[in-house]
Amino acid sequence: MMRLAHANVERLTYLTTWVGGDRSFWTHDPDRRLRPDVRAGLSAATGVPEGAIDALTLKRFEGTLFPALAPRATIRWLMPLGKGSGYRHGRAGLAFCPGCLSEDQHLRQEWRLSFVTCCPRHVTALLDSCPSCGSAYAPLSNDLGRGRAWLGERELPFAWCPECGHDLRRSPTGEVAPELSRFQATLLAALEDDAMEWPGAGEVPALEGFDVLHQLLAVLRLPEAQRGVVAASDLTGPARMPGRRNGSFEDWALADRRLLLVQLAWLLGEWPHRFLGLMRLQGVTRRPLVYNMSPIPPWYDVVAEQVSQRNGKRPRPVVTLAPHLSLPAMQARRDAADTELERRRWDILCRLAQTPDVVEVARHVGVSDQTVRALLRRYNDLGPGAMVRANRGRAEPGRRLLQPEQEAELQAWLAQGRVSNAELADWMEARCGRRPNATSLWTYRRGCGVHSREGRRVGGSSGSTKRLGNGGIPATACPTLEDVDSAGMLDGGQV
Ligand SMILES: [Zn+2]
Ligand SMILES: [Zn+2]
Q1: Which residues of the chain have pLDDT under 70?
Q2: If you measure from the C-alpha of residue 96 to the centroid of ligand 1, how many angstroms do you get, rounded to a whole number?
Q3: Superkingdom, according to UniProt (predicted)?
């Protein structure tokens, strides 16, 4: 609208009144919502398709940054326009980059977003007010109200302070911490991809990621959390709280938002261990972590669950997976596993990487806590290789005393009637040349693989009975979870 008014040597108010049919254009935030008749009028007057005009509003962030673009309500991540006295007073709802204003006269949609505090192109800090007089950046008030008239100006008056006439392109800009510009770049990329890479949780929907980040910024506002972060990280915190008691991240001044975002990026490191450790140390309960969140993304809920409740319930310990492999590498191993058992082990480890809570993972997978804990210990101590072998409790074909046909013959003989241990030993020695000990006799008489708890249970169902041709006993294709557990296949380090 500003560009159009300027190109047509027309007062901005005149143009908006003419297009909209009344003077209400500036009473709502026009970046949020364009009335359909205004949009149609603009399209008719300019020949620009309505869809292209819509794309100039903040609508494109709907569903990725915030759920819906309400015309009036406060929206997380969106800086509200301070509309007092023709947008000149009150809080600045729009930031700018002096470098960008020098190069081309465009106002960027991202400059309305609260997490955008530095320029991705110039890697300098954004400003949101005039360095000379301190009034909020509001280029439209150059024409609305008492600002400088646009008529007769050669350039678009985006770069002048409407209050004091200072050329904003010559504003000094500050350096930006590399971690801040990196963090901002990942957030902007999440908006583009509609998916956010969350440490330890893989890719999460952008909307959920931004929801949790905004919540964590609210947590950082708690004095105890702020004290803890400053003490643990050496990062500076905001100098003072914003005025509004129930304010949100958008209520902080631009410089303070920058400090908070650096703290947030730090807090996400080693997720969720650093975060949980800090919350516990500072005695932050679960409530502020999920306060007003609806819905709570499940991958965040399991983390918040681990902070003590107000009812005094003790939080569950967080376990740490040794950094042998990254989560994608572990997922690849899980998908490429040769056996069901190996796949299941990797599945448990992948879950532990995302939810460092033994009880939670055990409940999900349907095995005991001890099994998960033992698997974790085994993985941490022995490394990824230990997930493939670990076949304690299973027969190894090469170690059997008898050939499969001989075993079948033995079973047929045993089925005919009572055979003493001595007779059995003689029979076996004649065939394999070794006199079997008592354990071997026991296992061959039962027709099971090994002398283990699994073996002792033979008579029910077991994987090994099928191989031995013990007819009539149904054998399952893969061990049940109970088998996996009770055979100790997941635990211990011994073969
Ligand atoms: Zn710039
Ligand atoms: Zn000024």
Answers
A1: 82-90, 143-152, 243-245, 309-317, 389-399, 449-495
A2: 8
A3: Bacteria
- The per-residue pLDDT for 467 is 42
Cis peptide bond N-terminal to 80, omega within 30: no
Q: Could you give the number of structural domains in the chain?
A: 4
In this prediction, residue 266 carries a pLDDT of: 95
Burial 435-447 (b: 16+ CB within 10 A, else e): ebeeebbbbbebb
- pLDDT score for 238: 87
Whether 261 and 348 map to the same domain: the answer is no
Q: Which domain holds residue 14?
A: 2-170
Could you give the 3-state DSSP secondary structure of residue 351? helix
Return the SS3 of 457: coil
Residue that is last in its domain, among 341, 360, 387 = 387
Q: Residue 390: its pLDDT value, please? A: 52
CB distance 312 to 239 below 8 Å = no
User: How far is C-alpha 264 from the chain's CA centre?
Assistant: 14
Q: What is the pLDDT of residues 72-84, one digit of tens each?
A: 888 999 998 866 5
- Determine the distance separating the centroid of ligand 1 and the alpha carbon of 81, expressed in angstroms: 21
Q: How many angstroms separate the alpha carbon of residue 79 from the centre of ligand 2?
A: 21
Cα of 123 vs centre of ligand 1, distance in Å, is 7
Q: How far is the CA of 156 from the centre of ligand 2 (A)?
A: 17
pLDDT of residue 458: 45
CA of 153 to the centre of ligand 2 (A): 18
Is 294 buried (19+), middle (13-18) or exposed (0-12) by CB count in 10 A? Answer: exposed
Same domain? 31 vs 147: yes
